[in-house]
Amino acid sequence: MAAALASRLSKGRSLLGGLSNAFSGLMNSSNGMMNGSIFPQQQQRTFIQMGTILKAVDNSGAKEVMCIQSLKGKKGARLGDIIVGSVKEAIPKGKVKKGKVVYGVVVRAAMPKTRADGSQVRFDDNAVVIVGIKEKKNKNSDGYNQPTGTRVFGPVPHEMRLRKQLKILTLAQHIV
After folding, report:
1. Longest Cα–Cα distance in the chain
2. Taking the C-alpha atoms of 55, 45, 123 and 163 in order, what is their torsion angle to the nearest 10 degrees?
3. Containing structural domain, residue 168
4. How far apart are alpha carbons 112 and 78 in whole angstroms?
5. Which of 34, 36, 86, 119 is the most buried (most CB within 10 A)?
6. Considering the domain boundaries, does residue 73 fall inside one?
7. Which comes out higher in pLDDT, residue 8 or 80?
8. 3-class SS at 30?
9. pLDDT tens digits for 25-48?
10. Same domain, 94 and 163
11. Which controlled-vocabulary keywords does the entry list (predicted)?
12. Strand pairing class (82-90; 62-70)
């Protein structure tokens, strides 16, 4: 019956298009759907490490930031950690220009984070909020405590409260 269905799908023009070949190959395989011929393997999520491109989700002027260094941990940064990054793409009239070295707080990470109640939070992308521009030392520099932008777009996890990033939480549109 499976072979008849596969042959029916392969004759003429079908709405399924190229799926007929994959379907017939699946039926001919010995271990069925366990071989993973139709469904791709799930990608393993890792830390935010050197070279990772992150999306800037504030109105500081940066669009994309590449991680240069994680300021906590040897493996890389997680949700709520501070990173040093280089701005790879920016809007023309923003506070942050392309090529600047900035500090940022990771507000969304694709790596799952387990909460105290046993649930996990994981996002589709890696995102950062710019909290300071790395410049030469001067007396009036307040470090990297306050966000550069005045708005934060998209969801922000409530774990930021534990990391003492309350200003980011107040600027966020949606807290998860």
Report:
1. 80
2. -80
3. 53-175
4. 9
5. 86
6. yes
7. 80
8. coil
9. 444 444 444 445 565 656 667 788
10. yes
11. Ribonucleoprotein, Ribosomal protein
12. antiparallel
Read off the pTM.
0.69
Count CB-CB contacts under 10 A for residue 96. 21
Pairs from 132-138 (Cβ < 8 Å, separation ≥ 24): 132/102, 132/103, 133/95, 133/96, 133/100, 133/101, 133/102, 133/103, 134/84, 134/100, 134/101, 134/102, 134/103
- Residues with Cβ within 8 Å of residue 8, at least 6 apart in sequence: none
pLDDT digits (tens, 9 = 90+) for 50-84: 999 999 999 999 999 999 998 887 888 888 889 99
Q: Is the separation of the CB atoms in 77 and 106 below 8 Å?
A: yes
Please give the tally of structural domains in the chain. Answer: 2
Contact between residue 37 and residue 22 where contact means Cβ atoms under 8 Å apart: yes
Residue that wins the pLDDT comparison between 92 and 9:
92
Express the helix, strand and coil content of the chain in percent, nearest 5 each: 20, 30, 50
Taking alpha carbons only, the member of 103, 90, 92, 77 closest to residue 168 is 103
The residues pairing with 156 across neighbouring beta strands, listed in sequence order, are 175
Percent of the chain with pLDDT over 70: 69
Q: How, if at all, do strands 101-108 and 127-133 pair? A: antiparallel
